[in-house]
Amino acid sequence: IGHRPLSGRHALVTAGPTHEPIDPVRYLANRSSGRQGFAIAGALAALGARVTLVAGPVTLPTPFGVDRIDVQTARQMAAAVATALPADVAVMVAAVADWHVAAAPQKMKKGDAPASLTLVENPDILAALSQGPDRPPLVIGFAAETERVIEHGVAKRIRKGCDWIVANDVSGDVMGGPDNSVHLVTADGVESWDNLPKEQVAARLAQRIADTL
Ligand code: C5P
C-alpha cells in the first residue's frame, strides 16, 4: 500500500496500432504511435501493479517493470489479451484496425492489381472483454474522435459495456505527438483533462484506477 497502491493487482494494457497484411510485404495500418498506452502501462507499474502490455508494432522501449507481448494483427491482439486474463483492470488503448484484408498469399503484381481490397471485420477486443465471462472488475476503453468527442465517448461507454471511456480529440496532431487532451467518461459524469503531456494523462489515470480498485 502507501505509494504502491496497486501491488498484488494485475493490469492488462493494449497499445499501438495493428498491422493487417494485404500480402506478404504490404499492410494496412494507422497513425497510432503507442505513446499513450506505453505511458499508462508504465504508470500502472510505478504504482506497483503487475502489468501485461500487449503491443502492436511500435518503436518504443518497454516501460520499467512491464511484461510486454508483441503482436501484429488485431486477431493476434485478441488472442494475447485472452491468454493474459484474468486481470483486475484492463485499459484498452490500442488503435485496433476495424477490418483485416482477405490477404493474398503471394506478393501482388501491378498487372493483376485488383480493383478493391476485400475487408473483413475484426473482433472488437474491448467489447468482447467487457461483455465476456472473464470480465475484469474495471474495464477502460479509449475513443479517438475528431468531432463531438464527449458525445461519442458517452455513447461508446454504453455500446461497448466498459466502465470508463477516455475520449480523446485526435483532430490535431495528437496521434504520435507528446500531448493529449482527454475527457474521462464514467457512469458519474465527465471530467476533462486539457492539453497534458501523455505521461501526465497516464499518471492521473493510474491514480484514479488505484483509488477505484
Ligand atoms: O469502436 P472504436 O474503435 O472507436 O473503439 C475504440 C476502443 O475500442 C479502444 O479502447 C480500442 O482499443 C477498442 N477496440 C478494440 N478492438 C477493436 C476496436 C476497438 O479493443 N477491434
Automatic annotation (TrEMBL):
> So what EC number does this one have?
4.1.1.36, 6.3.2.5
| Catalytic reactions on record | (R)-4'-phosphopantothenate + L-cysteine + CTP = N-[(R)-4-phosphopantothenoyl]-L-cysteine + CMP + diphosphate + H(+); N-[(R)-4-phosphopantothenoyl]-L-cysteine + H(+) = (R)-4'-phosphopantetheine + CO2
Q: Which keywords describe this protein according to UniProt?
A: Decarboxylase, Flavoprotein, FMN, Ligase, Lyase, Magnesium, Metal-binding, Multifunctional enzyme
Q: In which pathway does it act?
A: Cofactor biosynthesis; coenzyme A biosynthesis; CoA from (R)-pantothenate: step 3/5; Cofactor biosynthesis; coenzyme A biosynthesis; CoA from (R)-pantothenate: step 2/5
Kindly indicate whether the keyword Flavoprotein belongs to this entry: yes
Q: Look up the domain of life of the source.
A: Bacteria
**Can you provide one Gene Ontology molecular function annotated for this UniProt record?**
phosphopantothenoylcysteine decarboxylase activity
Q: List, for all copies, the residue spans of the domain called DNA/pantothenate metabolism flavoprotein C-terminal.
A: 6-211
Region: Phosphopantothenate--cysteine ligase; residue ranges are 11-213
- Which residues hold CTP? D98, K107, P123, D124, I125, L126, F142, K156, K160
| Cofactor binding, note field | Binds 1 FMN per subunit.
Cofactor dependence = Mg(2+); FMN
Protein's UniProt keywords contain Metal-binding = yes
Task performed by this protein: Catalyzes two steps in the biosynthesis of coenzyme A. In the first step cysteine is conjugated to 4'-phosphopantothenate to form 4-phosphopantothenoylcysteine, in the latter compound is decarboxylated to form 4'-phosphopantotheine. Catalyzes two sequential steps in the biosynthesis of coenzyme A. In the first step cysteine is conjugated to 4'-phosphopantothenate to form 4-phosphopantothenoylcysteine. In the second step the latter compound is decarboxylated to form 4'-phosphopantotheine.
Q: Which family does it belong to?
A: In the C-terminal section; belongs to the PPC synthetase family.
Q: What is this protein called?
A: Coenzyme A biosynthesis bifunctional protein CoaBC
Source organism (scientific name): Sphingomonas mollis
Please state which portion of the whole protein this structure contains, as first and last residue out of the total length: 178 to 390 of 390
